[in-house]
Write a structure and sequence with these properties.
Belongs to the malic enzymes family. Its cofactor is Mg(2+); Mn(2+). The active site is at 40 (proton donor), 95 (proton acceptor). Keywords: Metal-binding, Oxidoreductase. The chain is α/β, with parallel strands linked by helices. It has 3 domains: 63-157, Rossmann fold (3-Layer(aba) Sandwich), CATH 3.40.50.10380; 165-309, 3-Layer(aba) Sandwich (Rossmann fold); 323-422, no CATH class. The protein has helices at residues 3-15, 33-39, 44-53, 58-61, 84-103, 117-125, 143-154, 162-182, 198-209, 236-239, 250-254, 271-275, 295-301, 324-333, 341-356, 383-397, 408-422, and strands at residues 67-72, 106-111, 133-136, 159-161, 191-194, 217-221, 224-225, 259-262, 282-285, 306-309. The protein has a 6-stranded mixed beta sheet, with helices on both faces. A 4-stranded parallel beta sheet has the order 2-1-3-4, sandwiched between helices. It is globular, with a radius of gyration of 22 Å. It binds NADPH dihydro-nicotinamide-adenine-dinucleotide phosphate (NDP), pyruvic acid (PYR) and magnesium ion. Magnesium ion binds at residues 137-138, 162-163.
Amino acid sequence: MNSTLLKQAALSYHANPRPGKISVAPTKELADAKSLTLAYSPGVAHACEAIAADPVAAERLTSRANLVAVITNGTAVLGLGDIGPLASKPVMEGKACLFKKFADIDVFDLEIAENDPDLLIDTIVRLEPTFGGINLEDIKAPECFYIERQLRERMRIPIFHDDQHGTAIIVGAGILNALSLAGKDIDKVNVAVSGAGAAAIACLDLLVSLGLDRRNIKVCDSRGVIYRGRDANMEPNKARYQADTNDRTLAEAMAGADVFLGLSQGGVVTREMVARMARDPIVFALANPLPEILPEDVHAIRPDAIVATGRSDYPNQINNVLCFPYIFRGALDVGATTINEAMKLACVNAIAQLARQPMADSATGESALTRARLIPSPFDPRLAAWLAPAVAAAAMASGVARRPLTNLDRYREGMAHIGREAS
Ligand SMILES: NC(=O)C1=CN([C@@H]2O[C@H](COP(=O)(O)OP(=O)(O)OC[C@H]3O[C@@H](n4cnc5c(N)ncnc54)[C@H](OP(=O)(O)O)[C@@H]3O)[C@@H](O)[C@H]2O)C=CC1
Ligand SMILES: CC(=O)C(=O)O
Ligand SMILES: [Mg+2]
């Protein structure tokens, strides 16, 4: 679809037949005076009193345990930048739809007009009685790191900045599979990165925990390569990735690199830069909505490249939609108090392994992993049954589950049903 048609279709999709993408629906019969008596006054008072006597009763008597807040202040909306909370609402409604569609989780999207990190934190902390979990979205770096850390310390429900960890999880799975196709080892490859914000820093942290050598990483922000000694007071997260190098530009950083990871802005990579990468280059151009370089431009200059973008209109969509519905599903279902490293790594492995399984409809039984299919499609009906139980099991094994499951196989069957309904 050309860009004019896409714009028209997207605006019409959002406007018709009624504005927006989500609504709230009752889950109980409410047809007569008797059901009104139960749902509202006087019957509702009994539910209130039960929760006042024992807060855990809220899990049985309200929607809270299946209700997640998608929260933003609109400071880093996709790659569009600081467009503010109101303009971010279509993205947040979109996330709400994806939670519901893929994992049957209800979401309130909250666009908060507050840029001061401490005031935003205080606002979010006060929402704990309403929600079973908090998905932070499109809050810019470096504030996002402080905001998430404070919330994790002050709240007893899962807090997950999707642009950091959801992206890192799917990038981790995609890179592991791409490296295996390219026949390269993670501890030996050179990586050039465009972007040093929420998503890029979290991806690097996870890739390092998977074996990537920090000395083989060169990161660029909007001012070029982050090299040792560049700034007197370098932001601490950038400082962790400052390189001992004479390279100063992204073009120099990409020369000879095995992997390019783009989490910055559309169009910052040229064909010439890709031409100078190592053999079988892995190009993850993940800026949204426009990637750092389009796949057709990469393939035109490097037929040996393995390419991914964040978009659904090209093969290999590396997008956090493959993670956030399922990591929350697993966490909520065991009453996890947090989403920890063990749960994230379980999710990475589950995605990477699922991509290696034969497709359900495969006649040959061959592995589905190819250069054009590094990771499962967002509509793969097996995602819920693979990811949510892996996350739930990791939560239980790492001691953060308040309501451990007694039968993981039965839980997996329930997730398979959700997956089939979604696809
Ligand atoms: N595919 C996916 O699933 C996801 C994709 N993304 C995409 O990643 C991008 C960044 O998102 P996020 O990390 O949340 O945003 P942040 O605002 O936290 O970070 C943006 C980073 O990009 C850098 N940057 C801006 N312009 C350039 C440039 N011309 N060259 C190099 N670096 C540049 C900024 O540099 P500086 O520090 O100097 O300001 C900053 O480090 C967006 O396009 C977003 O859509 C994000 C999450 C998931
Ligand atoms: C996908 C996503 O979360 C982003 O581009 O910000
Ligand atoms: Mg985002």
